[in-house]
Amino acid sequence: MPELGKVGGQFFRETIYPHLGTDREDVRIGPQAGVDFGVLDIGGQALVVATDPLSLPPGLGFERAGRFALDICLADVAVAGISPSHLAVGFSLPPEMTDAQFGDAWRAMDDRARELGVSVATGHTARYAGVQFPWVGAATILGVGDHEEVIRPDGAQPGDALLVTTGPASETAGLFASMFPEQLGLDAETVAAGQARLDDVACVEDALALAEFDTHAMHDATECGVQGGLVEMADSAGVRVDIDRDAFTYADGVRAVCDAIGVDPLQVTSSGTLLVAIDPDDAERAVERLDEQGTPAAVVGTVSAGEGVFESGERLEHPGSDPSWAAYDEYRSER
Fold this sequence. Notes:
The chain has 335 residues and is α+β, with helices and mostly antiparallel strands. The chain has helices at 9-16, 62-78, 99-116, 170-179, 188-195, 204-210, 225-237, 254-261, 280-292, 323-333, and strands at 27-29, 38-42, 45-55, 86-93, 119-127, 135-145, 161-165, 215-220, 239-243, 274-278, 297-305, 308-311, 314-316.
């Protein structure tokens, strides 16, 4: 297990996977390394469910942090091609968080939930000693649909085109530009462009638009970014992925922020960036549709028989631990 960040595939397989409670027939997709969601069969309908930690970085301002936190959680159901419909949330708040600060975050989450038709079903809210920002609890997102509508995370097929939305490292750029603007050593215009990248985390609308095409797999490029996510997609589907680094789109401010903090944009968290295996006949039409919604996207590679992820013939490995964690600790210690 890495010192920071989510566990790797080996730890999951050896320590977590053998101990998943009762083996029930209604669990159609259960826990798997690198898979964003599970699926239950409830009366013939698919109940898609995903759980994520809640992060409220004070440096973002609590209103913006609340929306940011919910968008990250909602993505893991949306990538199944199913609209998120319900939210269960547990807040374990640090003692220093004021009522007003929590209210700002919660109202922002409520606003975003209403935009998407998501209802809060249950929750728990309390302050506890020993809790520290930014990690303040967890949320579970639910969505209901037909089983045949679910886009499986391991569904990439030989012959698919690989489409990537938003571009790499937008989340990382947004977080560092917002929390450490003066430490980056960048001009004000570039910092502002980086800060705007936090809005790119919202991707429910993008995922649901992609579900209207012949999309075979979707994955949100969270910890370890595009490179880690592609390795997870390729491994779960048993296919080979070849990418062209020059084909990626990069949002304004991303490369400059990543250069400033010394990370590879392909290896750092980028929630809201969707990795999509899609029928090549639909790929360009999907790019056009996303562009109409204001989301840049590009076809950056292909899926074929084989295994692994390759760039110019060189195999790319899973980063293991997201490099942005170390950069975050370094910048935070300098404040």
